[in-house]
Amino acid sequence: MSSTLILDAAAIQRALTRIAHEIAERNAAGDDVVLIGIQRGGVHLARRLGASLRQILGHPVPTADLDVSMHRDDLDNQVAPAIHPTVIPFHVTGKTVVLVDDVLFRGRTTRAALDALNDFGRPRRVQLAVLIDRGHRELPIKADFVGKNVPTSLKERINVSLREDGGVDEVRLEKL
CA–CA separation, 104 vs 134, rounded Å? Predict the structure, then answer.
């Protein structure tokens, strides 16, 4: 399997900083903005965006973790889904929720996240921020904030490695 470096640590940081500025611009004062990272890939990215937004807006932006495993439409294809904790220590009703994920592909994880989010209240609006958009959508889902668009074939995979998971900050395109 061959791989090509798409983003290194500095490029990931630049993309996240740009996304944070775009979130701040689109959401005025940002008083009602909360970030919810989709387990697993989006959790660390949401925390990093939260730190950047704190500097930009001058106040903390609440962050949370959302597991979508039990809301997926492919549960019957798995022996047992990997369940990760959902931690949402605030009310989402009336808030602008920015869902954060590492890679947007077919759109099914985002659909599951929207279903899971409804269990916690009714946000005023939901926006989607992703580090990588690789195309191939099966559902009518589009990210509001994108770090990098990477057109791929179905015989390729995007691998996001983050230091918080014990890796190095990099995004690679892998040919299967």
Answer: 6
